[in-house]
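Please decode residue identities from the backbone states below.
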């Protein structure tokens, strides 16, 4: 069963199975930004918001009215971001067509001060989702995750910085077939 999941790639999206009990990942949509056989996998939950804004977590940063999301349960004292401004922000790594992970913070500060970018171009995250080598493949073999490949417009929902609570359901519906049915499973079947 695990053989079919060996092709996990940077830029893939994984969705939590509908009845996952882990509160960190319940109905999560995770964009995979790094995956290799030496370090494992890193991704960011793109549909779990907070009430925090960027300037709540970065004091010496120019005002930038953008929400901060929960990227995952690992190192929640670290800040990460994805964006669609491309190589204009040096140091970013393209993870899927037009979507980049990270970049130089000092350059970003200058771009914000000069009004060269807007909040719609970014998603910021506290922490990340991480798996050791082979762990994600094992979890996929156990059917804890559903693998989808990104199709623009739903990855980063136009980077508008909102939480996108229905993104999990939207992607499953777009995948069609049995996934369309899964999208309508109740969160708590015992309450049905």
């Amino acid at each position: 069963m695990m053989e079919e999941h060996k092709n996990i790639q940077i830029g893939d999206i994984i969705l939590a199975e509908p009845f996952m009990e882990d509160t960190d990942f319940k109905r999560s949509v995770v964009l995979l930004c790094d995956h290799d056989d030496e370090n494992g996998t890193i991704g960011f939950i793109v549909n779990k918001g907070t009430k925090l804004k960027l300037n709540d977590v970065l004091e010496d940063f120019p005002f930038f009215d953008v929400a901060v999301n929960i990227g995952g349960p690992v190192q929640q004292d670290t800040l990460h971001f994805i964006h669609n401004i491309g190589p204009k922000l040096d140091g970013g790594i393209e993870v899927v067509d037009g979507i980049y992970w990270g970049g130089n913070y000092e350059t970003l500060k200058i771009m914000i001060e000069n009004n060269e970018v807007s909040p719609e171009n970014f998603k910021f995250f506290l922490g990340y989702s991480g798996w050791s080598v082979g762990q994600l493949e094992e979890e996929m073999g156990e059917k804890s995750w559903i693998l989808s490949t990104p199709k623009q417009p739903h990855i980063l929902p136009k980077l508008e910085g909102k939480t996108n609570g229905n993104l999990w359901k939207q992607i499953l519906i777009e995948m069609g077939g049995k996934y369309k049915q899964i999208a309508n499973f109740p969160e708590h079947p015992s309450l049905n």
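Observation: The chain is about 20% helix and 30% strand.
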